[in-house]
Fold this protein.
Amino acid sequence: MDLSNNLYDKFKLLVLVVLPGLATLYVGLAQLWDLPNPEAVAGSIALFATFLGIFVNRAAALYGGAGDLVLTKDPQDGEVYLSADLNQHPSAFGNKKNVTLNVRHLDAP
């Protein structure tokens, strides 16, 4: 499953915010307005959100970030050096709003 950053962000928002919010809203409105089956409706929405969460989690695992932010500590003077080990050419990030980097710690030889 290959999702664009924009589609992934929207899908994640749906699963983590919109669907749980909708379930909560229905339960509250059902109490106020005597709407039918609040537990069944909210439970169904929660189950659907949980199921979709599998795909969000899988997409996040496949994406794996844009690369690594590498921290290296020099044993001589204790100075910490920072570098980026990117998965793509830097020009590929020009149109992105956000990127995710994993932090990797290395000990200098």
Notes: Residues 67-107 form one domain.
